[in-house]
Amino acid sequence: MSTLSQTNPSTMAGRWLATLADFFTPRQLATRAQQLLLPLVGIVVFVGLWHVAAPQVQTSLGAFPGPADVVEQAGALWQEHQDQRARADKFVTMQEERNARILADNPDAEVKIRDYPGAPTFVDQIGTSLVTVLAGFALATLIAVPLGIVIGLNRHVNAAINPLIQVFKPVSPLAWLPLVTMVVSATYVSDDPMFEKAFLTSMFTVTLCSLWPTLINTSFGVAAVNPDLVNVSKVLRLSFWTHVRKVVLPSSIPMIFTGLRVSLGIAWMVLIAAEMLAQNPGLGKFVWDEFQNGSSESLSRIMVAVLAIGFIGFLLDRGMLLIQRKVAWNE
């Protein structure tokens, strides 16, 4: 009989309990409770102060919305999304039934399914904003990381490009947006465009404003590679690409990811302003439309969007932090 089958169940249970006791020590439990309790206390205090102060702030559209008003409008926006999806499904079903009748009479007829023409819902606009910011951030990363490596490896290139970085880094997205709009309108001309011009305008604006932290951190990380590693690379006569892949990138990964996290936060912040002016159907346009609408519910809906923007930004940062911990050697 095997050793495993002879093991006493009570002994196994005792081992599990001992392991749990080692993991959940009083100190660890106190630390975890503190980590959970303090943020919870902060949130409760904030909501309480918001609830008390909101009725005291009167605007042209009425009192500033409190937490209950915001929760109510969040539920209403979700219900609008559900109703819109139901109408869209019904619209597609009607077209499929019509096409089936047409094909029954004429098997060679050309039929198509048209998209539902209804306005995007709040949830749809969240999806549009996420796609736009990730596209702009990805493009910024593809530009900033290779260029940052070149700058960090060559002091002459660094001296040539650094003044340009310092000039363009602080430029506001509101300054870039008119220029990007004009360039996209002049160069992206197509009878059947793959992307909407508003999407491209917002994406390129995000790219132009978010690439600088990654570019700067990458160049600093590459320039700070341990000289001993560089000397070993020279002794082994590694090629340029091998040197970058085996020495430079592993050593500079922590700095690169620090820049990426900052860039992603800037990209998300810039996107909202870009969508307001470019009228890309995302969260920025939602906020602008509700502001222009001026109904009694507009302030509550804008506050829902503000909280959604903040929460999504937090999740994006946590996601990038998780990736950093999986990739960066110092984590």
UniProtKB/TrEMBL annotation:
Q: Read off the InterPro entries from this record.
A: MetI-like, MetI-like_sf
Q: Which UniProt keywords apply?
A: Cell membrane, Membrane, Transmembrane, Transmembrane helix, Transport
Signal peptide (from-to): none
Bilayer topology term: Multi-pass membrane protein
Task: Please give the chief subcellular localization of this protein.
Answer: membrane
- Where does this one sit in the cell? Cell membrane
Top-level lineage group: Bacteria
Give a yes or no for keyword Transcription regulation in this entry. Answer: no
Q: What protein name does the entry list?
A: ABC transporter permease
Q: Which organism is it from?
A: Marinobacter lacisalsi
